[in-house]
Design goal:
There is one protein chain. The protein has about 180 residues and is an alpha+beta fold. Among the domains are: about 55 residues; about 70 residues, no CATH class.
Length: about 180
């Protein structure tokens, strides 16, 4: 049986055009625009973090943090993967987060992409807290000369103490909240 060359060419053209039409859907990174959305995103990221840290089910972590799995799926779909019919949290993610960091004139927001960078900023803020409340300057040693997302960590002990004395260090919140207002 001989294959008609016209049919073969048509078939090949159709296959190529179908492959062009079928593209992997990319998830857009979510940027909160209202206070409520920022609070929801903070709860979602807290639930994801709790699930990773304590190695518990993501549904249980969501319940503890006051949110639901469906909310996590909406705000951070790239964090979850299905394994044997259940959702699991991936080891790390690339979700952008607005974080508070210590600047030369006090706290300032910094957009960080990914859980690893966010963890590094959190460790830095814990080191700054250790310096301010316990007076231990050795905690800042691992951050000397280091940077994240183009931001160089402030490790000058004298400058950090000046900012703390002036009341410009708000070390109680990691997340910066709303990144753009409406």
């Amino acid at each position: 049986m001989q294959i008609d060359s016209f049919r073969l060419e048509t078939y090949a053209r159709d296959v190529i055009s179908r492959k062009r039409k079928i593209r992997k859907r990319r998830t857009k990174s979510f940027v909160p625009s209202t206070k409520r959305e920022a609070d929801v995103l903070e709860k979602v990221l807290a639930a994801v973090s709790l699930s990773r840290r304590e190695k518990i089910d993501v549904r249980h972590a969501a319940k503890i943090e006051g949110t639901r799995l469906s909310t996590i799926r909406r705000y951070a779909p790239s964090v979850l993967e299905k394994h044997k019919g259940k959702y699991r949290v991936k080891a790390f993610d690339r979700i952008p987060r607005p974080l508070n960091v210590v600047g030369s004139k006090g706290m300032r927001p910094l957009g960080v992409r990914g859980s690893r960078s966010a963890s590094q900023v959190a460790r830095y803020l814990n080191a700054v807290r250790t310096l301010i409340y316990k007076g231990d300057a050795c905690a800042l040693a691992p951050f000397k000369g280091k940077s994240v997302s183009g931001y160089r960590f402030v490790t000058n002990v004298k400058r950090l103490k000046e900012l703390a004395d002036a009341g410009l260090l708000g070390l109680d919140r990691l997340y910066a909240g709303v990144t753009r207002g409406r």
